[in-house]
């Protein structure tokens, strides 16, 4: 039997880690409207994000590193290291210099503000995965 994480389609498999219920709800609704996206999982805290992302092995992790449980940055670091073929896109309300430096030191370049227009966010997600072999032309 084939497990869910072995099934591959041409759709971009996205895992969302966001602890703010309203933001999470809005992102889920928007991502689900895109025919080239497949939302494979959602987490509201760092523990769920770590466990579920490992299980689903998405193409892209869209994560807020400043979660209420205080473990967001360590979760980002752990997932980035343990799933090297997964693209990590950070979406946060707090984009200060210190956070940017810490994320860039982890090797992350896609750091977006939650204030980004939806069309730009979707473009950034598509652009991010274009570097993966199965999406590059």
What report would you give on this structure?
The chain is an alpha/beta fold and about 140 residues long. It has a single domain (about 10-130), classed as Response regulator (Rossmann fold, 3-Layer(aba) Sandwich), CATH 3.40.50. Helices cover about 40% and strands about 20% of the residues. The protein has five helices and five strands, in the order βαβαβαβαβα. It has helices spanning about 20-30, 45-55, 70-80, 95-105, 120-130, and strands at about 10-15, 35-45, 60-65, 85-90, 110-115. It has a five-stranded parallel beta sheet, with helices on both faces. The protein is globular.
Q: What count of domains describes the coordinates?
A: 1
Class derived from helix and strand content: alpha/beta
- Text of the CATH class: Alpha Beta
- Write the CATH fold name: Rossmann fold
The fourth-level CATH homologous superfamily is Response regulator
Strand line-up of the largest beta sheet: 2-1-3-4-5
Low-confidence stretches: 1-7
| Shape designation | globular
Average pLDDT score: 89
CATH 2nd-level architecture = 3-Layer(aba) Sandwich
Please give the share of residues in helix. 40-55%
* Count of DSSP-assigned helices: 5
Distance between the termini: 30 Å
How can the largest sheet be summarized?
A: 5 strands, parallel
Strand content: 15-25%
The helix/strand series, from N terminus to C terminus, equals: EHEHEHEHEH
Find the count of extended strands (DSSP E, 2+ residues): 5
Q: What is the alpha-carbon Rg in Å?
A: 14 Å
